[in-house]
Design brief:
Layout: H1 6-30, H2 45-67
Length: 92
């Protein structure tokens, strides 16, 4: 990594601040194309039923999980503020 002086850094930062809007404007012009929609999957009747059952089952499982309350002993450690350890002084 090369060293850079404060004034040189300020010059480069100013040049980048001037050039950034121009670059962003050019990028905005290039991406005017509409994104292609994702193709829909063609499912048979059996597959559609299976998908609907899977979604219903997932929703039921998520509802059960959200309704559960963790016992106090199982609360995650980050909930409680830990006391920082005392640091030893620098040895010289």
């Amino acid at each position: 990594m090369t060293k850079i002086h404060r004034r040189e850094f300020a010059k480069r930062a100013a040049a980048a601040a001037v050039a950034a809007p121009l670059v962003l404007e050019k990028l905005g012009q290039q991406t005017t194309e509409a994104p292609k929609p994702e193709p829909k999957l063609k499912l048979s009747a059996d597959q559609e039923v299976a998908v609907k059952k899977a979604v219903e089952r997932r929703d039921q499982q998520l509802k059960k999980m959200r309704d559960l309350v963790l016992p106090y002993d199982l609360e995650p450690a980050f909930v409680f503020a830990a006391r920082p350890k005392a640091r030893a002084g620098r040895r010289e």
